[in-house]
Design brief:
Largest sheet: 2 strands, antiparallel
Shape: rod-shaped
Strand content: under 5%
Number of strands: 2
Distance between the termini: 46 Å
Strand order of the largest sheet: 1-2
């Protein structure tokens, strides 16, 4: 009563009435003065009172109240931060699971689980290299056979015998047949000087020459037919190789596109994993 200046009131009712109108906060603020020390974070608390002990009580109570208030503010902020981080953590966990599942589905759909994109690109590159090498060899062979084919066509147009073609004249079978025919013709010429045309020996020689010439013609025709077939086969193989190369190039482009999508999904999954770990760590620290 004395502290708040109500000691002069006689009756209990007057005191209670005065206390109802009494503002404790305003009273305390009137006694306490707070000032900050220059160039520091230290504050000076001064209490004006007639009683030194009571003044000290006011000063200590003020510092305790400030410390408690400041602690409440920091605790509230930390609690809010924990709540916010918990919400973010839940959202990031969901996004991480979605990103990992999307990456898994992409790998499953494009069969990347068994063979990685890097390995598939390496396989396609090796296949392209082999196909291009085979195409070069086949093209060279086709050009060579096409030259033989053109020689044969020109020989027929010029009225020349196919025997003049290198591919025919170099045949061992053809050479042996021509030698045999030449020997028989020489023998036939010798017999012509001694026997008539219908003599059995001349008839026999003539039949042998005719048979060998027929065999020679068949052999030449077979050689030319085989050369034509080899040309057609080389031409067909070249076309097939070109188609295979174009198809493989398309596969390479498709793999490159898949790699872009895969890298994006992989990056998203890694990003969400990093964010999740970071937020989880901050939540634990804040808690």
């Amino acid at each position: 009563i004395e502290l708040v200046g109500l000691a002069g009131l006689a009756s209990r009712e007057d005191i209670l009435t005065a206390l109802d109108d009494f503002d404790a906060i305003e009273f305390a603020q009137a006694k306490v003065t707070i000032s900050s020390a220059e160039d520091s974070r230290i504050v000076k608390i001064q209490v004006a009172d007639t009683d030194p002990e009571r003044a000290a009580l006011f000063a200590n109570a003020s510092t305790d109240a400030y410390a408690e208030y400041n602690l409440d503010l920091r605790t509230t902020a930390a609690r809010s931060a924990v709540d916010w981080l918990s919400g973010q953590l839940s959202d990031l966990k969901r996004k991480l699971e979605e990103a990992e599942f999307a990456l898994y589905e992409f790998k499953k759909e494009h069969n990347i689980i068994s063979v990685s994109l890097e390995d598939r690109q390496s396989m396609i590159s090796q296949t392209l290299s082999e196909l291009n090498s085979r195409l070069s060899e086949t093209r060279a062979r086709r050009i060579e056979l096409e030259a033989v084919r053109e020689q044969s066509r020109r020989a027929r147009n010029d009225g020349l015998t196919p025997e003049s073609l290198e591919s025919v004249s170099s045949s061992t079978v053809v050479q042996n047949l021509k030698q045999s025919i030449s020997a028989l013709k020489q023998e036939r010429a010798e017999l012509a000087s001694r026997y008539t045309a219908k003599h059995p020996k001349r008839v026999e020689i003539a039949e042998k020459v005719e048979a060998l010439e027929s065999e020679l013609k068949s052999e030449i025709d077979s050689l030319l037919t085989a050369a034509e077939e080899r040309y057609r086969a080389a031409q067909d193989t070249e076309i097939r190789l070109r188609n295979a190369i174009e198809k493989t190039k398309g596969e390479a482009l498709e793999v490159n596109k898949k790699e872009i999508d895969y890298t994006r999904l992989q990056r998203e999954a890694k990003t969400y994993a990093s964010l999740y770990d970071l937020v989880l760590k901050r939540q634990k620290e804040t808690d």
